[in-house]
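Worked example

This section walks through a single chain of length 308. The input is the sequence exactly as stored; nothing has been trimmed or padded.
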Amino acid sequence: MQTRPCHVQSPRFHAKLFVGALMAIVLTLAGGACSVPRVAGQAEANVQLSACDKAMRRATRRTQLATGTAFATRDLRFAMADAAEHDWVDVAIQCPTRFEQGTLRSAQMQWLAQQLAKRVQRNYTALIVTRLDGLTDNVLPGATLAQLALSEDRVGFATEVLAGRRAVAARTNGLDGSTALAALSDDHKQASSELMSLAGNTQDLRRKVYATQTLVDSPDTMVDPATGLSAPTVAVLEMNCAREELATVQQALPNVHIDDDAKANATLDNELCQLSLLIATHAVTAFQMGYPSFDLALFSATPPAAQS
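Given that input, the structure is written out below as tokens.
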């Protein structure tokens, strides 16, 4: 799939937000008899919030509505989850210390929106990005992009190995799944190639072939070394690719200094948006394949050590 333009708000968002806002107003009025009086200067103080603070408040508020079940209807929850998935990407862009949080929260909201869409019988398309065609310039160091390329290449190889094993199993036992894994492998390798191309003259860390013992020993399920949780092997591979890449970008951001250069800022915003969407796609893919999406599985994990 081609890269998605980095518009933070969904093109289908505003109509649903209008309906959701009306429902939220009704809920607010219902509980408004004991509302807190306005504090003098509060609105003025809010106007002075940084872009990061505004993004965090908006994302947090909509996430609370999306995950709350006491008063919110499923329609409202779906609308808010669909909005929050974009809001958290905005957090990843606007908040240098929250790239990881914004990306994983966006993935969680995409997964929740998928589940709610089925219940309320709504059409829904997640923010799936598997290629970086629209990323033609970069601000992040070439070494960072080379490390990301390595992560993509490694998981691309692993899914290719698993696809081969399933193809053999299909011929003998009638099992299926190799075609989807082969396509997933191709997506990772394409992203790896695009990232390395952007890295310029930086050393290429990719090996093309990596150790396979873990895949041979645990082709179906494995214990995630980052959490100790057992999950389908492909799901663990996808999630750990996401974790590696989040750690790589997060580590690089404090050293990026572009001051008031408008062009460089716009380039960085687009770069972070595309990378956040790509990494969130890995996480959503992991959820679809059986990886748990609750906070403890995502935010208390340690990035896995690089494997040969």
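What to look for: The radius of gyration is 21 Å.
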